# Entry
Amino acid sequence: MPAHNTLTLGPDRALYVGDLPPTGWHCHAAPVLLVGLSGRFALHLGPGVVESCHSALVDAGVEHLLDPCGEQVALMYLEPDSREARGLRRQFDRRGPVILDVAIPVGARSAMDGYLRHFDLHALLRLPWAPAAPLDARVLRSLQALRTPGDQRLLRDGLAAGVQLSASRFNHLFRAEMGVSLRSYRVWSQVRLAMAGLATSPRLTDAALHGAFSDSAHFSRMFRQTFGMTPSSVLKPLKEVVLVT
# Structure
């Protein structure tokens, strides 16, 4: 099946489907489900540690390198505060930060595409689910600010004060609730905002502005740190960017 590179962004999840070059070493502030749609891929987890698999669930903050081995892949990112990501916490705690061959076999591509398009993790994953604990209201309030286009520098300085906590106490609470540091998540939220901007303009310079990056070079540097690839290698070949509510 010919590649059709698409990016779908929802409020608490994102999906890329298509071809990708091998990435460099990277880690991001959201757990990701990797699925080889046309064959196996290689997942590097450390020097000399390489796994060949059809799917993998990688927790937030785990440094890794993805080599699609020329196969089409799907990458589904879950915001750490999403019901699904919080429901998977017990699995990560029990089985470790990387769970291999966790998804159902691809089988009929149309069925797999449907599960992915609807973010149907209950159908995709061969894992039991546990009820998710509610997110602390103070962290939830900070996330609403982080996910709104604006001056990220001012947001950073005001988040703790906005929930009436000291900076150190807020950072501790944020990491405890989200599983990642505030700094890492702030970069992640800016990159997401930038990619959402592609739905209205295909220009990467406009995307950088939408994500409140200081310039295109800053956006490129943070994108590469987050995904292990340059923005142009992933975003320019996109055939479609879809925003869903």
The first strand starts at residue 6 and ends at 10. Residues 182-196 form the longest helix (15 residues). Strands lie at 6-10, 13-18, 32-36, 41-46, 49-53, 55-58, 65-67, 73-78, 98-100, 240-243. The radius of gyration is 18 Å.
